[in-house]
Amino acid sequence: WVFTAGIRYGRSHSKRHIHHQTQVPPYHFTTGTYHISRTKYAAPFADIKSDFHESHTILDFAAGKDIGLGMFGHDSSSTLSVGVRFAQFSSRSMLDVQGRPVLTPGPLIIGIPKYFTWDQYTLSGTAERSFRGIGPSLSWNASAGLLGNHESGELMLDWSVNVAALFGRQKARTSHNTEQRHEYGLNHTPEYPVIYQTGTGIVRSRSRSVTVPNIGGSIGFSVNYPNAKVSLGYRADFFFGALDTGIDARQTKDLGFNGPYASISIGLGG
């Protein structure tokens, strides 16, 4: 019999700030005591800020038995295992966008605009999404000898396939606001009327019980000793419909994790 326990944990953080602003060509005009400079006018610009956090945890407990019976050679193994898999995924994101795309000049007085008009647009939003579930798992792990021998060290080709069904709760909480403001004048002022707005602080919260199918596999090489094994390879795991990525309405998205892995196994007992 073979008893196994495993944990995978990962997290990421991405934060960006992008600002673009049009350089307005200056011009000056003076008559008597009156002076005006175009550089006073509010220049067109776009400003974007984003912040994203993500983390995931996967726990496995399984018991299996070698049922290979030498099907891939004398030193081969083929282990069928049943167990329990727990998975938790969470993400948190923030977006803030502001833009003033164009300035429109008003009537001219002695060749100079009496005033400028412009529209300013704002979009802000946050989202928190998560899934936590547990369920039965079934896996097949096999290997075949390539070089060497079991007593002094043997190079093995390893592969595995795993399936699971995770029963848990999927949650999403989102908020967003979009507005358009209009202003006119020679200088930017902090107060100008709103002519369009989706609403302030629109919050949507969703929570439901779901079943998330999971399938994965791996392939790699290992060096096998009588009571230890060192492995290197590539693994992939896919969770179907794991997260609710919708904003105003539910919309599910698959999650996939893939990449190289390394492991050390130590045998206990005879």
Features:
270 residues; ten-stranded antiparallel β-sheet
- Rg, alpha carbons: 31 Å
Helical percentage: under 10%
Largest sheet: 10 strands, antiparallel
Distance between the termini: 11 Å
Mean pLDDT rating: 83
Q: How much β-strand is present in the residues? A: over 45%
The overall strand count is 14
Which stretches of 5+ consecutive residues score pLDDT under 50?
29-40, 187-191
Summarize this, please?
The chain is an all-beta fold and 270 residues long. The protein contains no helices and 14 strands.
Task: Describe the protein in words.
- This protein is mainly β and 270 residues long.
- It has strands at residues 2-21, 28-31, 34-37, 45-66, 77-100, 103-105, 108-109, 112-113, 116-149, 153-185, 194-197, 202-225, 228-244, 252-266.
- Strands 1, 4, 5, 6, 9, 10, 11, 12, 13 and 14 form a ten-stranded antiparallel sheet that branches.
- The radius of gyration is 31 Å and the shape is elongated.
